[in-house]
Amino acid sequence: MGRYLLRRLIFLLVSLALASVVLFVLLRLLPGDPANALTSVGASPEQIAAARRSIGSDRPLPEQFTHWLGQLASGDLGTSFVSSLPVGPEVSARLNVTVPLTLAAFVLAVVVAVPVGFVAAYRRRTWYGALLSGVSQLGIAIPVFWLGMILIAVFALNAGWLPSGGFPQDGWAAPADAVRSLVLPVVTIALVMAASLIRYVRSATLDVLGSDYLRTARALGASFPRAMWRHGLRNASVPVISVLGIELASTLLGAVVVESVFALPGLGSLLATGIAQHDYPVVQGVLFVSTLAVLLIGFAADLVQRVIDPRLRGRLSGGAR
Amino acid sequence: MSITKARKASLRGTATAAVLALGLTACGGGSGGGSASSGGTWDKNATVHIGSLYEPQNLDNTAGGGQGVTEALNGNVYEGLFRLTDDGEVENLLARDHEVSEDGLTYTFTLQDGVKFHSGKELTSADVKYSLEKVLADDSQSARKSNLEVVEDIATPDAKTVKVTLSKKSISFVYNLSYVWIINSDAKDLRTTEDGTGPYTLAKWTRGSALSLDRFAGYWGDAAASKKVVYHYYKDATALNNALLTNAVDVVTSEQSPDALEQFESNRNYKVNDGDSTTKLLLAFNDRAKPFTDARVRRAVSAAIDDKKLLESVWGGHGKLIGSMVPPTDPWYEDLTDVDTHDVAEAKKLLAEAGHAKGFSFTLDTPNYDPHPTAATFIKSQLAEVGITVKINTITPDEWYTKVYKNRDFTATLQEHVNDRDLVWYGNPDFYWGYDDKQVTEWVEQAEQAATTEEQTELLKKVNRRTAEEAASDWLYLYPQIVVASTKLSGYPLNGLNSQFHAYDIKKKG
């Protein structure tokens, strides 16, 4: 296990290093000039040159790159071109919205999807099994912004129970307001995520239900719940965990649409603004942190799978990454 | 000049969000407008929640803060020597009075007494000198820099007096000074903090969500009406309207979603205010590029497009046709809609005269956000009727800035121009649209050198008529400026001239 962890760690660092190079280069390939965000339309060539100087975008690329790496090594994500605010605290402020949002939605989605998916598989021949299956199919087809708008219309505009959007300026120092502002976005993401998870849980369960080992266990006298618990769920959970890892990782930045509908200051909207403004330090900071998060989630999913399934323990990496 | 009021967060960052007017005179025309009147008692301890689509990029208006920083901080946190009121008039603010020398080159300003910065320091002439120099500095990104370059010398004979010498006469000097924030000369980190003299101090800026202001107890003038003001920022107009409907905000600074107006108009808890805007939607020809070098072709295109129908389809019953670059709030406004009438037969005739009887085709560079794509499609179908083929090329604001504005690599483009008094750009042959008429250039120069505002107004009226008759551009329409507010609120600005939103008079009933 120690050897495995070490190898995994090296893999993580190499991935991160590669990602930072790709990130840096790709960003600079985008058409446009970061100085544009700072200059007004009547700007003279001198004003434009001054803007480039002030943000350092007039320096040679290798120099900019090593400067960035140097900062990263000392745990500093740099300073925004546009706002002049340090990127690190800004990213962490956004994570205060995005992480609770993503995790809560994820947990809710799993809590809904696992039992529903299981029932949809186990009772697939009954009317409600078919119904569950159909509803989840429908859920996949619903655009997330539309679902968000419907929830706002019903629970905020009509019933007035919850805010239609925004996040308290004091953040988690106002816990009740913060929680209230996250309820609808969490439900929105969770429902959409659950819809696709149900499909995976259902098909993984179906595989298990038709498997030889389950039949064997039953033949050896195990009750269905016991056979399912000891052998079925374990096996079914391996592919599902891979999907869970991917879903979780993609929601971190993928929540941008939901953030926009609910006016939440999350990581995705910071990234979108940063890209539009060519604010390289912000974009690099967000992507670096999220790359790290994705790698860690992949690693965690991998570990969990190895704990569940001993057959994976001889391999370097199991599933999600 | 002034270009766009970019209305999406993603666009706010670009240069097009710049607000830079080309001022000419100190005295605005001013329309009735003003603030919504206050009724009865109000809560002095209230928090006023303002909803906006324009978040500041940073807090320094000489470092690319953008439109949002003007909206939140101008007049509220920072003050100038003069203030541009919501009616477009310039009045004394930190300057108690001023004198101009006979030759019009020396301005002597006397400062108000007892003015303190938020940090506690007393305002002196040294701070004024510092602030003006900051706008003129090499690294300044102030949109006013070029207008103020006539400043030759700034002297401070005593703590309360500032003497500015100009290199040539500039009748809009005082007007331009209303855009110069007076800052504590010792202040640091002005992109993320502030030290002004205004009725409000910055409490906290949470980027991506809100900016809050607290009443400044040491304010030299009348105290702000409400204790706290919070600007809440939205990227999505629907999310902003929802916030207003659920009382999360009390007022929306500039409604950009005409479809949503009905729900407020039919609800007696809200008031929809139609103010005077200065934002014009232009079909700007490249006047250096064929076939638009020929005024007949430009006139033909203008005549072929039914502006009224376009305005109706984009803004319903709101907005206005003006037929020129000059909005009604500018002193030199004249209704020139009769110069640019919709007349398809006339358009065909002009095209034939110009040798384009069979029409021609051109590419229209169209910014990718509303209302430009809608307008482009409309123009395409209208011009097809006179045999002109339009190829729509959709571009981002950033591309617009590089391709059209900097490189002048275009035949025609669509763009919104937000500022007041920006007619004078037609006097600059180097401007992006390349309109080059020696007479117009001369009139514009004379107007800036004018001894009186009457003389200036007279000259600029000539410029206005000439550019309209020559169809220097096609001015499609003037935007509406719509402020929607809860009926609990009064005292808010209606016109939001040049993106300002003075919040200090806003009163909220308990």
Radius of gyration of chain B: 23 Å
Number of domains of chain A: 2
CATH homologous superfamily caption of the largest domain in chain A: MetI-like
Largest interface: A-B, 51 and 57 residues
| Oligomeric status | heterodimer
Q: Treating each run of at least 4 consecutive H or I residues as one helix, how many helices of chain A? A: 12
Order of helices and strands of chain A: HHHHHHHHHHHH
**Which strand order do you get reading across the main beta sheet of chain B?**
8-9-10-1-11-18-12
Per DSSP, what share of the residues of chain B sits in E-state strands of 2 or more residues?
15-25%
Q: Any idea of the CATH topology of the largest domain in chain B? A: Dipeptide-binding Protein, domain 3
Strand content of chain A: under 5%
The CATH architecture of the largest domain in chain A can be named as Orthogonal Bundle
Uncertain runs of chain A are 317-321
Share of helix among residues of chain A?
Answer: over 70%
Q: Would you give the CATH topology of the largest domain in chain A?
A: MetI-like fold
Q: Structural class of the helix and strand makeup of chain B?
A: alpha+beta
Count of strand segments of chain A: 0
- Reported CATH architecture of the largest domain in chain B: Roll
Largest sheet of chain A: none
